[in-house]
Amino acid sequence: MFTNGFIFFKFRSNLFLYFGVVFIIGCGVLFAEDSKQTLPSVETKKNQKTTSEKPNSIQNPSPNPDQAPNSNPTQATSLADREDNQTPMEIFNKVYEHRFMIRGGWGIGKLSPAILNETGPAWFQNSLFRQITEPGAPLSIPYKPAKDLGLNSQFFDIRYGYKNKYEVQYAEDTSLGVYSRDLPASNNFLSPRTDTYWASSFEGNRLLRFEGVSQHLRFSYTHPISKILMIGPSINFHRYTERNNISYGSYSTSRPEAAVPNKVTWSIGGDANAEYSMKGILPGVYAKLKLRDWWEIRGRLELLDRKGNFSVLGSQIIQEVYNDGTSNLAVVVPAYGGKVRDKGTILNLETSFQYCRFSLDIGMIRQDVKRNYDSYFGDTVGNVPRSDYSARSVYIGFSEMSNSVKHTVTEFYIMPGVSFYYDENKIY
Q: What is the rounded average pLDDT of the residues 405-422?
């Protein structure tokens, strides 16, 4: 696990270093080119402006006899080359009035889910609380936290841009967890020996499926700082849904001194759905760096603050094996709900290559989230003695509400796209 984590950390660090080197080299080269061309271009524009501001000036008073009648430079100049249309914005990304872009793509990544990260400290504190009403009940001490999990991602977005300054984007990102026998999404616990129970080891929580869907409606404005750099504010109307399919486990064996001696109680399966629904308005900063006509680097940083509701409902099958060899199957029902809130950041970096109306974008999205529960209520209902198995929570989730747990998602993606442009001349 350490080796895989180190390789992934090294790969991510190399990627950030790559973006940094490309950014510095591109800025140096292009600023050098701009400095060489500054005086001629300024003088040319000055002369043109002086000519155009003369009152009642006569265009071409002494025409060349060999020149065609309709070869007036002003009339023959295209929209892209007209003097009154040459602003830093058009120099930055050519000329267009309206742009409509569609993109779609795929990605891979890593996930550290909050639903598992909260299990270790929550179950341990809950088992401590149980000692008040159930003295001698087994403690749940986490000894093996959940590993980071693989992700498969799907991306889709639609963008509308006006003069490359204003942009409206609808984007959707769906992340699916990837698990295997060698990489289980689970937490492991130890229960030390007590006067009533023997020591034991068990898997407490297993994540069977993770699906996170992020929807974004963004409005952005970017202002030209130079011919190659633009930066400005953005606002994101964000909605997030998360669906977790989880199973609980426990194992305990009573000692001969217990009221029911030599009884084995263990969870042989279960299925519960933990669903989260949140939304928020996220402010951010959006920047573009135009290195070439065909190459652009974009970056966006948003402050994440979303909140909403969560619910957990399902079943857990428990088998009880007694001293005389008889056994019994029972079902207990975990049912919880309350208010949840996520705070953190969303960072998006991408490099975009363009050929005519087609583009290919390669990028990274990083979500660093801290999850808190404003309220947490529920219980696990059933006929099995509560001291014989480990439940998710006990009545009011004081332990869940007292902790902040991390939820991180890192995704690398590739997205081909196509654009359509419109200005006063034509659609192209």
A: 94
Same domain for 11 and 104, yes or no, is no
Nearest partner of 423 among 96, 85, 80, judged by Cα: 96
The CATH code of the domain that includes 265 is 2.40.128
Residue 169 exposed, middle or buried by CB count within 10 Å (0-12, 13-18, 19+): buried
Q: Can you tell me the distance from the alpha carbon of 363 to that of 105, in angstroms, rounded to the nearest whole number? A: 11
Are 130 and 217 in the same domain? yes
Residue identified by tokens 């263990």 is: 266
pLDDT tens by residue, 117-172: 999 998 898 888 888 877 878 889 998 878 888 999 999 999 999 988 899 999 99
Residues in the chain: 428
In this structure, is residue 85 part of a structural domain? no
Could you tell me the CA-to-CA distances from 420 to 96, 99, 101, 361 in Å, in that order? 10, 6, 6, 17
**Count of domains for the chain:** 2
Measured CA to CA, the distance from residue 413 to residue 282 in angstroms comes to: 22
- DSSP E strand stretches across 62-185: 98-112, 141-144, 149-162, 166-178
Residue 127 is predicted with a pLDDT of 87
Q: Do 131 and 265 reside in the same domain of the chain?
A: yes
Residues 220 and 296 in one domain: yes
* 325 inside domain: yes
Are the beta carbons of 319 and 265 closer than 8 angstroms?
A: yes
Distance CA 73, CA 272 (A): 74
Judge if 152 and 209 occupy the same domain. yes
User: Beta 405-422 vs 264-292: how paired, if at all?
Assistant: unpaired
Q: Are residues 240 and 385 in the same domain?
A: yes
Looking at residue 423, the DSSP 8-state letter turns out to be -
Helix (H, G, I), strand (E, B) or coil at 49: helix
Own/partner long-range contacts of 290-295 (Cβ < 8 Å, ≥24 apart): 290/92, 290/93, 290/227, 290/228, 290/229, 290/230, 291/22, 291/26, 291/30, 291/228, 293/94, 293/354, 294/353, 294/354, 294/355, 295/351, 295/352, 295/353, 295/354
DSSP per position, 197-209: B--EEEEEEEEEE
With b for 16 or more beta-carbon neighbours within 10 A and e for fewer, the 298-311 pattern comes to bbbbbebebebebe
| Domain that residue 46 falls in | 2-51
Pick from 349, 93, 347: which is nearest to 224 by CA? 93
